[in-house]
């Protein structure tokens, strides 16, 4: 039980220590006040040197477009005509036009004013010109011939028909280098000029043929923007502020967390605190509240500094409006749970560090995991929905965006899901931090030099009966890496045999082979590692069979719900349809059906269970918490599935299978359940209610072909499954050494308070 009196004393102690640290005060209070005014000043200073540079353009065949005849001129007085630059005629000076080839150019064998394709390519590649424009030698004549044909049609000459008109007049060739930024800029400028010039030629041709200019564009589309200027600017602020607040909350929590954990280890004050009458959970909450205060202070002070600096900058930008008035309120409301989550994560990570220097290394992994969730809401097309609101950090950013944009009605239904997910992640992180502080080995392990030869020798000769936590996690990472590289190396199957071969190779090579090799090399008792040393009871096998059948409608409903929350993209849906066509392309003979069952049900049921409920779960149980080991192994089990929607369902099944493995102490029931689950899923994909009225009372097919069980079947199966799981949880199960120790710690008497 937590003692708030102890938490308060620890909180004030940690805050005083942090306030005595001048580096902390500088990073939190002084740096934000100085940083953004200096950035704004630097921006204005640097902007003086930013201006568009002219680009060099060589034009071959310029005599064809100098404005002779009735064509609108492209070039006037040696440069592009000013009227071709809409809005700002002075931009014509940004294109420096040259007509005379370089002195070292070889053009003896070509007519005057012409260059070869090889010559133009070479000039652009060597950087002599950013762009080379080559007009055909008879370009003007072809345009004039085209116009004469139009005149003939207008005058009613019967010997000339519209079908005989030249469809397209061969135009100029533009040589540019897309790998060169300056050449790419010149190409964009030239493209706009030529597009405008071509449009004017078309208008001139319409006049010659006696057709109104509006004939080419007869529809006048009215563009009515209902968003006011304030709403447009609010949309911009809504993309900037969430990113900045989350980044500041994370960095503001990380450095105090490192100092409060790794710093105390270096100063030797952590032992004094741990030997006090305060419990470990009191210590964690006291440090957590301290880190949270500094995280929020960092974010708030940065916001104030940005606001003050932004007011001065906005005065120079009259076309941009300040943020909405309620912006500080929404930022603060979202900042509180987000700061709590980041503070708990940083505290747990910092507890693992041996020193302050090592603790700083953990910032990069934390940012690598966090940044995709922060960047995702900034992608186009990502909107606030029930599925997105359930994604940690992403949901908070999308909710904050909706509030800043003033879409309160849209944001209101998703406030609860975002808060539940954020607070749930916070509680899990706090639990992780408490476990870190309960581990004496983790708190007081010494720094050590990495000796590869000594490490390998200890790895081989000092093996335990089961793998360590590190070896279990390394096994998961190895499987994921092999799966990724094999997926890139192997070609996609095109027929039934190719699909079957790929599925079998993936299971046997990617999953089974690494696990079996690591089991033999790194453990002394392979049967115990793989949970094959105990014979399961008949009760467990029978319960697993009933459980697999009863829970199948529930899993199917979960799969349909996931598909509704996170619809498949067009590419993934097309790929799945392609695989479905391979499986159902031929007649379902007995041999074909048995082959599918072996490859898609039996082999995965054996290989995946050996890996994730065998080697991985046995190693993770050394963490001391069976549910923590079950969830982590299920998480990695879900990652091995390539499609995100499948990964979510696989995580749920991984938790269920991990629970079965722990409660029965054997891998056989897990394999049996896994095989039955895959068999039922494969059979349901071919299930049809046509010609079988009895099935229509149990299942139906949706418009997109998805199998849907009636709610009575789902609820009934769920109740049966829940009863079996409750009965299994009441059975005694073997504990690891660490789980036995942790159970003794959890049931020990509470310690007295400090005061």
Describe the protein's architecture and organization.
With 755 residues, the protein is mainly alpha-helical. The protein folds into three domains: 245 residues, no CATH class; 161 residues, no CATH class; 277 residues, no CATH class. It is 65% helix and 4% strand. It contains 29 helices and eight strands. A four-stranded mixed β-sheet has the order 4-1-5-6, with helices on both faces. The chain has a two-stranded antiparallel ribbon with strand order 2-3. A hairpin with a 2-residue loop joins β2 and β3. The C terminus is likely disordered.
List keywords for this structure.
single chain; 755 residues; mainly alpha; four-stranded mixed beta sheet; two-stranded antiparallel sheet; 4% strand; disordered C terminus
Tell me the structural class. mainly alpha
Radius of gyration from the alpha-carbon trace, in angstroms? 35 Å
Give the overall shape.
globular
Averaged pLDDT, please? 80
How many structural domains are formed by the residues?
Answer: 3
Helix fraction by DSSP (H/I, runs of at least 4): 55-70%
* Low-confidence parts: 749-755
**Strand order, sheet with most strands:** 4-1-5-6
| Tally of helical runs | 29
Beta content comes to under 5%
> How many strands in all?
8
What layout of secondary structure does this protein have?
Blueprint: H1 4-20, H2 22-47, E1 55-60, E2 75-76, E3 79-80, E4 95-98, H3 117-126, E5 131-134, H4 139-154, E6 173-175, H5 181-208, H6 229-267, H7 270-274, H8 280-316, H9 327-352, H10 356-361, H11 363-375, H12 386-389, H13 394-404, H14 408-411, H15 415-438, H16 440-443, H17 452-461, H18 469-489, H19 496-522, H20 526-529, H21 538-565, H22 570-584, H23 590-620, H24 626-639, H25 644-664, H26 668-685, H27 693-696, E7 699-701, E8 707-709, H28 711-729, H29 737-746
Parallel strand pairs: 1-4, 1-5
Antiparallel strand pairs: 2-3, 5-6, 7-8
């Amino acid at each position: 039980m937590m003692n708030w009196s102890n938490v308060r004393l620890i909180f004030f102690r940690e805050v005083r220590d942090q306030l005595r640290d001048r580096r902390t005060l500088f990073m939190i209070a002084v740096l934000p006040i100085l940083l953004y005014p200096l950035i704004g000043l630097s921006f204005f200073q640097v902007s003086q040197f930013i201006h568009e540079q002219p680009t060099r353009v060589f034009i071959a065949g310029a005599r064809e477009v100098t404005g002779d005849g009735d064509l609108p001129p492209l070039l006037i007085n040696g440069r592009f005509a000013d009227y071709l630059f809409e809005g700002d005629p002075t931009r014509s000076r940004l294109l420096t036009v040259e007509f005379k080839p370089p002195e070292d150019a070889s053009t003896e064998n070509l007519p005057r004013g012409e260059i070869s394709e090889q010559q133009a390519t070479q000039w652009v590649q060597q950087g002599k010109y950013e762009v080379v424009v080559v007009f055909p030698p008879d370009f003007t004549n072809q345009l004039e011939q085209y116009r004469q044909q139009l005149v003939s049609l207008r005058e009613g000459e019967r010997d000339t028909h519209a079908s005989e008109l030249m469809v397209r007049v061969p135009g100029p060739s533009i040589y540019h280098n897309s790998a060169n930024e300056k050449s790419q800029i010149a190409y964009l400028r030239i493209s706009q000029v030529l597009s405008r010039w071509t449009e004017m030629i078309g208008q001139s041709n319409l006049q010659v043929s006696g057709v109104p200019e509006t004939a080419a564009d007869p529809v006048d589309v009215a563009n009515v923007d209902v968003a006011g200027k304030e709403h447009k600017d609010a949309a911009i602020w809504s993309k900037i502020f969430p990113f900045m607040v989350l980044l500041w909350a994370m960095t503001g929590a990380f450095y105090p967390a490192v100092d409060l954990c790794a710093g105390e280890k270096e100063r030797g004050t952590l032992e004094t605190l741990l030997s006090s009458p305060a419990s470990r959970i009191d210590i964690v909450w006291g440090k957590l509240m301290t880190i949270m205060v500094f995280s929020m202070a960092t974010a708030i002070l940065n916001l104030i500094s940005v606001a003050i600096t932004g007011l001065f900058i906005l005065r120079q930008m009259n076309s941009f409006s300040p943020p909405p008035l309620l912006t500080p309120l929404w930022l603060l409301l979202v900042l509180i749970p987000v700061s709590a989550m980041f503070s708990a994560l940083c505290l747990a990570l910092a507890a693992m560090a041996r020193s302050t220097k090592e603790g700083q290394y953990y910032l990069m992994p934390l940012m690598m995991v966090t940044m995709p969730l922060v960047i995702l809401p900034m992608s186009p097309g990502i909107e606030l929905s029930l599925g997105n609101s359930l994604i940690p950090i992403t949901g908070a950013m999308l909710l904050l965006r909706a509030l800043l944009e003033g879409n309160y009605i849209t944001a209101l239904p998703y406030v609860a899901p975002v808060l539940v997910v954020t607070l749930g992640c916070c509680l899990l992180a706090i639990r992780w931090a408490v476990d870190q502080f309960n581990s004496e080995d983790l708190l007081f392990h010494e720094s050590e030099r990495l000796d590869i030869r000594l490490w390998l020798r200890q790895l081989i000769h000092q093996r335990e009966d089961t793998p360590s936590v590190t070896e279990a996690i390394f096994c998961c990472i190895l499987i994921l890496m092999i799966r990724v590289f094999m997926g890139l190396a192997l070609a996609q199957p095109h027929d039934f045999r190719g699909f079957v071969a790929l599925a079998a190779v993936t299971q046997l090579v990617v999953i089974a082979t690494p696990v079996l090799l690591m089991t033999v090399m790194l453990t002394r008792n392979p049967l115990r590692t793989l949970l094959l040393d105990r014979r399961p009871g008949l009760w467990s096998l029978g319960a697993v069979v009933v459980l697999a059948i009863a829970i199948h409608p529930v899993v199917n409903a979960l799969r349909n719900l996931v598909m509704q929350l996170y619809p498949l993209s067009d590419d993934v849906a097309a790929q799945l349809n392609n695989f479905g066509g391979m499986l159902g392309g031929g007649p379902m003979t007995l041999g074909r059906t048995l082959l599918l069952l072996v490859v898609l049900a039996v082999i995965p049921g054996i290989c995946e269970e050996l890996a994730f409920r065998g080697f991985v779960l046995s190693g993770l149980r050394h963490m001391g918490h069976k549910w923590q080991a079950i969830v982590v192994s299920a998480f990695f089990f879900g990652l091995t599935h390539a499609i995100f929607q499948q990964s979510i369902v696989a995580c749920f099944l991984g938790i269920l299978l991990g629970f079965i493995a722990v409660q029965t102490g054997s891998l056989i029931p897990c394999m049996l359940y896994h095989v039955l689950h895959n068999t039922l899923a494969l059979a349901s994909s071919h299930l049809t209610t046509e010609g079988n009225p009895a099935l229509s009372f149990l299942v139906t097919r949706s418009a997109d072909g998805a199998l849907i069980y009636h709610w009575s079947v789902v609820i009934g199966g769920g109740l049966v499954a829940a009863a079996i799981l409750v009965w299994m949880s009441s059975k005694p199960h073997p504990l690891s050494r660490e789980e036995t120790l942790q159970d003794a710690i959890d049931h020990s008497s509470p310690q007295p308070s400090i005061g």
